[in-house]
Structures are given as C-alpha cells and as structure tokens.
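[job 4471] stage=fold_predict status=RUNNING
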Amino acid sequence: MAAFDGQRVTVMGLGRFGGGVGAARWLAERGADVLATDMADEGTLGEALEPLRSHVESGAVTLRLGEHNVSDFTDTDLIVVNPGVPRPWGNRFVRAAQAAGVRCTTEIGLLSERLPDRRRVVGITGTAGKSTTTGMVAAGLRGAGSVVHVGGNLGGSLLGTLDEIGSDDFVVLELSSAMLWWLGDEDAPSATRGGGWSPCVAVVTNLAPNHVDWHGSDAHYEQSKRAILAHQQPGDVAVLGGSVADWAVNTGVRPVVVESGEFEGELLVPGAHNRTNAALALAACEGVLGESHREAIVRGIGSYEGLPHRCQFVREACGVRMYNDSKCTVPGGVALAVDGVGEVVGGTERVHLIAGGSDKGVDLSEIGALAGRVAGLYAIGATAGAILETVTPEHAARAHRCGDLPGALGLIRERVRDGEAVLLSPGCASFGEFRNYEHRGDEFVRLVRELFPDGVTA
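[job 4471] inference complete, writing structure tokens
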C-alpha cells in the first residue's frame, strides 16, 4: 500500500472515461501526493470528479483545473499522462518533464508493469471491431470456466482491482493506438515511454486511416498500432485480421491469420463483421487455452450480447427497430453497422442512418457513399457538410443536413415506415455537442424513447 509513499505524482488529464481518475485514486491510496491537472474546468468534468472527492477533502489529491503549470511537470517525481493528450512528443509540458529528467508513463503503463503474469494477458487493437472483439474474448474465456478481468480503452481502470487478479485469472485489454505508442512504439522517446511491453496474445482486427488529429499522419497511426507486436516473446501468439495479415511478427511468435468472418457458432449480435470479430476472438482464446476448449469457447462467444453503444438494440416501436452504435467513430465502421442492421430488417435500403460529429481530419467519403444504399442519410455535427459534399447527385435526395441529433430524429420520425430501422452510427468523434460517445449514445436512447414512445423496451 505504501509503494508510492511520499512521492509527488502529477496526473495529466483526468478525462471522461475514468482512467485518469482511477490512476489518481490508486496512487493516492498508495501514499502518493497527487496533483491532478486538466485543461477542462470543474464544471466541464462534472461527475467524472466524484470518485476523487474524498481524496481531495483529505488532502491526498490536489486539483488544478482549467490550466496546466509547467512547474507541476518539472518539480515532481512522476508524470502519469492521459493517452487522450494528443501528440505528446510535442506537448510542451511533457517535453518540460523530459528535459527535467522526470519519468512519464500512463495508467496502462502502470498496470502493465504490475500484472502478475503477462502470459495470461490478451490485448486487442485495430481500427474497427476492437471493443466487440474484446468483449467476445472475455465471454469466450468465461465460457471455458476462466475468471476474466477486462480493462484498457473500454474505460475505467484495473489498477484498483490489481489485488483481486489471481495467478490463474486472465486479463483482457482493449488497447488504443495512443496507449500503444506509450507502451513501446519506437518513435516514443525513452524518457516518456511506459517501457517495452506487449501482451502474450495480441489481436489486430484490421487497419484503416484514423486519428490523424492525434498522430499527425496515417503512417504514425499504423506504426503505433504495430507496437502491440513489438515486444512479444517466443511462444506468444499474434492473431491478425485479413487487412494486416502481412504484418511481421517477432521470432518464435506464432501468427494466426483470420481472413474471413467464418464462425462455427450462433451469435446474438448481427452482421458479417461480427462473425469476423467472433473468429478473431476464438483464435485469441485458443491462443491461451488451446484448441481442446473450443466447444466451450464457442458457446461463450455465442452468449455475448454486445456492448452498450455498439450496435446496441434499443427498442422497437410501431415496427421500427432502433440501434445505438454511438461508439463507431471511424467512417469504415459505419458501413459494417449498416450491413449488420440491414441483415435484420431485410436490406440496407430499410435503414435510416444518422452519421457525423466532430472532425478528426479523416476522409468521410465512405459515409457519403452510403446514401445510395440506405433509406436516408441524416448528417449531424461539425462534419455534416463534409459528409454531404461526398454524396453523388443521383443520391442527394436521400441525404439530409439535420444540424443535431434531435433534428435528425425529428425528420426520421416523419419518414420512417413499418419494418425499417433507425441507426445511429456516427463514424466521427463526439466532442463538441457531446462529452463523449457514451453521452451521445445516452442522448440517442433518451430521444428515441421520447419521440417513439409506443414500443417495448429491450
């Protein structure tokens, strides 16, 4: 409990998903004098601060909100940086810490250093499908009778439950490109990296351009994704989706390539892309348990009901099915969601698609192209104009600029028919109109219940 007794630690960026707050709490409970600093003010952070209240009142945690001070990064013993901080290699506060010789790491870095056995860790990354695949891996392992702890990019922090992770348990981590940069990308300066670490079983679902706003280029994004394989050891397993099948693995690492969506069991979640996710999850589970457990793993994956905000069935009202796919923040993922929901309702031409959000600097033409395949495309947020610019003239009548989510649902209510579906699959980040993708999804669910009251809640 006194591992950080008397150390001064600055937590940079509390975020809205619990990682920064979780790290601050965990450090304070282990004797650290924690300064938590965020460019957002207290009003913006809101309820995210609640888990820290008792530690702030006791003096174990000091808050500096609405600004960063350089001295907080140079006159301290350790910096814990939220991976959401973009381009940390050029961030002036991180650079100041580096120049002062202060070690920088992340919440996932602290966790990876303390996990009891990396041979029982499965890590999942990729542009699309990593959250669902993470959930399916956990379900498959549990189906085979294992105790599983899930963390990483899904939100929250496993630091507070480290003492509960037994030597025979499995840890399943969703790893973002930003997390992986800190964990061991070769581009990361040694003074600011969390140390070379890769999971025993590494899964890469796929790769497409994304997060240029954080990385600065597609090449840097890919390089950071590849870091999940960089420190694997002989005997480890690399499960690779078809689009990354040619990625090199370290000597002694066994590559398993999953080219298609062939999965031998039944699934509760719709879509060919989810069959691919299930096949990846099966390969990952067999990577740690072996093929002798296949039947139990398949049953476990088949019981997986899906994540909130990821093609989540919300309700059916007057014959119209509503789906919340708010977690989709990449253009390539929108088509997958449309196809999956289309399978349920008898064709994509029966799907009313709401897309758009804040701008990450990526090509949005994949979303615009869907106007020719769906009943209607309803563009919202800052990227609405950019999406509609990519719609061809022959499909322009199906594309609508709605401004915001209530506007889109109001228009859909006038146009939707029995047997059709409403799908929120933004393909863009949520910031600006919403705090995060969860807030966006929750608002969608609330508005659906308000505007479509005649239905049975799932």
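[job 4471] summary: DSSP finds 17 helices and 18 strands in the chain.
[job 4471] exit 0
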